[in-house]
Specification:
The protein is an alpha/beta fold and about 250 residues long. It is about 25% helix and about 30% strand. It has helices at about 10-25, 35-45, 65-70, 85-90, 105-120, 130-135, 245-254; strands at about 1-5, 30-35, 50-55, 55-60, 60, 75-80, 95-100, 145-150, 155-160, 165-170, 170-175, 180-185, 200-205, 210, 215-220, 225-230, 240. The termini are far apart.
């Protein structure tokens, strides 16, 4: 089986490749494409693969734009941290729709579904909308329980419950632990929006997402401006964006 992976997070793409090889070492990954533009260019200039595994949110837009640009008829298994795209995914060759973080057993089930739908000779069968919706309804929302980080030549997992906040600087996202350890991660704050429990984490501005228990003091200034003291402390003052102040207060009161 020849597969193309459309995914803008390199670690996620590598993990997906590992799961594919675990399922079937004979699977050939033809390309790892990080964007809509790169995908359109590749599909225009290469023979169609047997299957595409495609994240919905890419670095330059939603992957549905690929189908609006070229006539791509390849079966697709979509992956995403969000669950609001079910119907749209169905309309563009969707075999299945997997929520991040990806689960190996669910990936295997999706590949087996692909084989049943398309058969050994590639003869496509119809996948009913009702069936797809039923399969989606069975999936409970899951939030990311750990993050993989690099320490020199070693890899380490950090449990989400040990993380106090995330921040971005120089186009790199960092996590900060309760022990004030800081590690870069392969996710943007935008991409993490559906990975974190919204009851525990809130994005206070464009550069930072904080956990509720990390907030030690809340200072309210004139005109509603809010400054936070965090644990561990930050080098610079941390403010809640003015356009998020009302929503932030509602989040605090939930």
């Amino acid at each position: 089986m020849k597969v193309v992976i459309v995914e803008d997070e390199h670690l996620s793409a590598q993990r997906l490749q590992g799961m594919l090889k675990k399922y079937d070492p004979a699977i050939e990954v033809l390309a790892e494409l990080p964007s809509v533009a790169a995908s359109v260019d590749w599909f225009k200039n290469n023979p169609d693969p047997d299957l595409v595994l495609m994240d919905i949110h890419l670095e330059d837009g939603q992957s549905f734009s690929i189908f609006e640009t070229i006539n791509l008829q390849v079966p697709v298994i979509f992956t995403t941290a969000f669950d609001e795209y079910t119907i749209k995914a169905f309309k563009v060759n969707s075999v299945d729709y997997l929520m991040k973080p990806l689960n190996y057993e669910e990936l295997v089930a999706a590949i087996e579904k692909f084989k049943r739908i398309h058969g050994e000779a590639g003869e496509e069968k119809t996948l009913g909308l009702e069936h797809l919706l039923q399969s989606m309804q069975k999936k409970e929302p899951e939030y990311k329980s750990r993050f993989l980080v690099s320490i020199g030549s070693r890899l380490k997992t950090i449990e989400t419950e040990d993380i106090q906040y995330f921040f971005s600087a120089d186009k790199i996202t960092f996590l900060v632990t309760k022990e004030n350890q800081r590690f870069p991660i392969d996710y943007s704050l935008d991409k993490m929006a559906g990975m974190l429990d919204p009851k525990q984490f809130y994005r206070i501005n464009r550069q930072m997402t904080v956990k509720l228990e990390a907030i030690r003091n809340i200072h309210v200034f004139s005109k509603g401006k809010i400054k936070l003291d965090l644990d561990p402390p930050t080098k610079e003052d941390v403010f809640v964006s003015m356009d998020k102040v009302v929503e932030f207060k509602e989040w605090l009161g939930k």
